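@channel sequence for tomorrow's demo:
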Amino acid sequence: MISSIGKCSCGQTKVKLILPETLEHYSPRACDCDFCISRNISYLSHPDGELKIESIEPLHVQQQGSNQASFITCNCCKSVIAASLQLESGLIGAINSTLLSNFALLQEPTVVSPKALEAKEKIDRWQAVWLNIKVNGNSRI
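structure tokens (generated this afternoon):
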């Protein structure tokens, strides 16, 4: 497994992404919704990966679009850290890949349109491609 690190704009929230391959093997997904486009976000995940988020202050969680996914943001600078979904088994999601210190190693983002999927299709898709998330060591936010 390969680790990559990153942080939010203000540096208060730090991330460690663990993936099976080096970043050169991945193309992040650029969501085509207004929320993500306005923030220039592209998401990265792998079902065998893990994202560890460490923050001194409590993180902010907000909903957008269909209100199914939650967006974890830094309470101080408001940077989006990850899109997430809380399941009974734990927290899954995808990191905002632009936060990674070695973001430039990634392939060009692929545009995706989750809004074109039905509610159940979104959840099925997320469960297939998203990674496990731990926030300050916990699998709940």
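heads up for whoever presents: The domain at 2-135 is CATH 2.170.150.70 (Metal Binding Protein, Guanine Nucleotide Exchange Factor; Chain A).
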